[in-house]
Amino acid sequence: MIFDTHAHYDDEVFNEDREELLANMSANGVGHIVSVGASPKTSKAALELAHKYDFIYAAIGTHPYDVEDLNEAEIQWLIDNAADPKVVAIGEMGLDYHYDEPSKELQEKWFRRQIEVAKQVNLPVIIHSRDAAEDTMKIIKETNLGECGGVIHCYSYSAEMAREYVDMGFYIGVGGVVTFKNGKKLKEVVRNISLDNIVIETDCPYLSPEPHRGERNDSTNLKYVVTQIADLKGVSEDEVIRVTEENAKKMYRI
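^ thats the sequence. predicted structure below, dont judge the formating
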């Protein structure tokens, strides 16, 4: 079944129909979901969801946009809760230079600190990186983060860099952008790396694929991502679902 490796079901846009939506996932071919924290608050919400639903797991961490409020007490919470059997990764964390704030220095400080946590608790990582290709790669190499493994989420860089990440032991996260007409770069990545190195994700409620671009996204839309990957790789949709599910379980050690 489809494994959505990155979702944000704690988001308030799901408040009115969250339970109904999640109750129908299996009927829509979705077998597992990882609800991903992007701040101390949403990490706690993701863990609550994981405890409520057998098929949901949690990742806990802080997105680069939310590091201004991060502190060592929250880092300790990550360490304390990493042993929870429903916690499968540290993240999402990383660097995002699309806007001027938070500062690059502050983002790097807390990225490195969360890397330390992941290595301490021996969990894979979920890396968020936008407009920060060189610095992200530099920090990952300096910290030998490939030892933890994990995913470069919502991948947006070159096929050459994707192969470098794969060689270090990371998976490449592919979502709705691969269906966009202007998603040529991600299409090229999918063509140039093995299906064995790809996991699929929604990042819902964001990045809904065609033909629902601009609408609220959810895990049932991954069927469009599967169709696009199957077309790009010249394999069946069933093969894409099977291999990416195996990849996700291996990555998250489920």
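The longest helix spans residues 104-121.
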